[in-house]
Amino acid sequence: MKYLWALTIAAGIGNAQAYRFGRVLDGEKVLTNAVIVVEKDRIKSVGGSAVGDVINMTRYTAVPGLIDVHTHMTYVLDMTKIAPSGRGAASVYLSQENARKTLETGVTTVRNLGASDYADIAMRDLINSGQMVGPRMFVSGYGLFITRGGRGGPGTADGPVEVMKVVRQQIAAGADVIKIYGSTGSGQDVSGDQTFTYEEMQAAVDAAHALNRRVAIHTYGPTGARDAVRAGADSVEHATDMTPETIAEMARKKIFYVPTIDHNRYYVDNAQLLKYPPGATDALNDYIARNLETAKKAVKAGVRFAMGSDVVYTMFGENTRELSWFVKAGMTPEQALKTATVDAADLLGKEDRLGRLKPGYFADIVAVEGNPLDDIDAVIKNVRWVMKAGTVVVDKRH
Ligand SMILES: [Zn+2]
Questions:
Q1: In angstroms, what CA-CA distances link 67 with 145, 285, 306, 330?
Q2: 230 Cβ contact partners less than 8 Å away, ≥ 6 residues apart
Q3: Is 98 exposed, middle or buried (0-12, 13-18, 19+ CB in 10 A)?
Q4: Is pTM beyond 0.85 here?
Q5: Ligand 1 centre and the CA of 20: distance in Å?
Q6: How remote is the CA of residue 165 from the centroid of ligand 1, in Å?
Q7: Is residue 29 packed enough to be buried (19+ CB in 10 Å), middle (13-18) or exposed (0-12)?
Q8: Which DSSP string do the residues of 156-211 spell out, in sequence order?
Q9: Whole-number Cα distances in Å, 162 to 49, 83, 86, 143, 166
Q10: CA 115 to ligand 1 centroid distance, Å
Q11: Angle 236-238-239 (CA atoms, 0-180°, nearest 5)?
């Protein structure tokens, strides 16, 4: 954990700085005409009054820095063939643009689920040391796959013993979280055939939890979700067509659902760019409809959600569009906003540092025009200014 709280060097910020906002959503309540005092990388106070100079931000609503719990920051659409599928050192260089576009959406923290060659670990450490500008990253290293269809490189594991070993290898390499591919399904392929068995998932969860790491299990289909929930995964990703029994158990065990509905919308919109065959969009649209239905049932059942975009390629900059699907699934705008702030921080195990605008928390502050509690689009479309750990990283005020 030694990297996580390394400070981004904030040039020029030596003393406390005060900002007055028209409205502050601190994660629990609404404060009007409130001042946030920032000292170094942290929030010092949030309240009505301030001594000395105050920067006037009264046109804006302040919300906590947003958290995207499912990203692929190192995946670049490689026209040059320099870094195919996010591989290698070149992908770290090319992913700087992904990092910048992510910050522009107000996302100041990501959970990155799957990368090759530990490019994600390099990127995280470059950002934490101030050598690269980007969101704070919690990363998985290689996602775990079973041997299948010619796939057999790093991250491959078959049987509980190998699974435990590969989980430990990721953690030894510096992973903060473990990602398991518990079913098929990716890109134009919306099949959801279970891959890892229940016993293998259980081995992964046990090995990760013993080393104080959480586990995200990817499953497009319902049987992988059933076994992921039974095995005690911390979050289940995608998971369309879950049965009422699986949904009820998720709610009971407080397991997070990260449905990633919007990423298939991105694939539909960009089918030509991605060279998908004719007909691929029909399957994707059908999957989106079922994904939304499953999310509706999970909202009704009281399952906890976290916002994950599953962002890849040219989708960076659209990280938060998932929130509008959450409102369509039956959440209030306030509930939707929490999936990208307080609830996402809980999923990361950083609920005492991230996701709220409170004293002692990281000074991750997003200024938006409008009131997200009336219309979630204020957060999706109207981000004007972003501070990460006390440093202004985006400024589009006029
Ligand atoms: Zn993903």
A1: 26, 26, 9, 21
A2: 198, 201, 202, 249
A3: buried
A4: yes
A5: 38
A6: 22
A7: exposed
A8: B--SHHHHHHHHHHHHHHT-SEEEEE-B--BTTB----B-S-HHHHHHHHHHHHHT
A9: 58, 29, 25, 14, 6
A10: 10
A11: 70
Cα of 375 from ligand 1 centre, angstroms: 27
Cβ 219 vs Cβ 236: under 8 Å = yes
Determine the distance separating the centroid of ligand 1 and the alpha carbon of 264, expressed in angstroms: 11
- Cα separation of 31 and 22, whole Å? 8
User: Model confidence over 202-259: pLDDT tens digits?
Assistant: 999 999 999 999 999 999 999 999 999 999 999 999 999 999 999 999 999 999 999 9
Residue pointed to by tokens 């709280």? 5
Ligand 1 center to 180 CA (angstroms): 10
Mean pLDDT (the chain) is 93
> Ligand 1 center to residue 70 CA distance, Å?
6
If DSSP codes are grouped into helix, strand and coil, which group holds residue 334? helix
> Do 209 and 172 meet the contact criterion of CB atoms below 8 Å apart?
no
**Alpha-carbon gap, residue 168 to 152, rounded angstroms:** 18
Task: Please tell me the distance between residue 72's alpha carbon and the centre of ligand 1 in angstroms.
Answer: 6
Token reading at 230: 């039974």
Q: Per residue in 283-310, pLDDT tens?
A: 999 999 999 999 999 999 999 999 999 9
CA dist 117 and 288 (Å) reads 31
Which structure tokens are listed for 237? Answer: 């990703």
What letter would DSSP give residue 54? Answer: E
Q: Which residues surround ligand 1, an ion (CB under 5 A)?
A: 310
| Type of residue at 69 | V
Alpha carbon of 14 to ligand 1 centroid (Å): 39
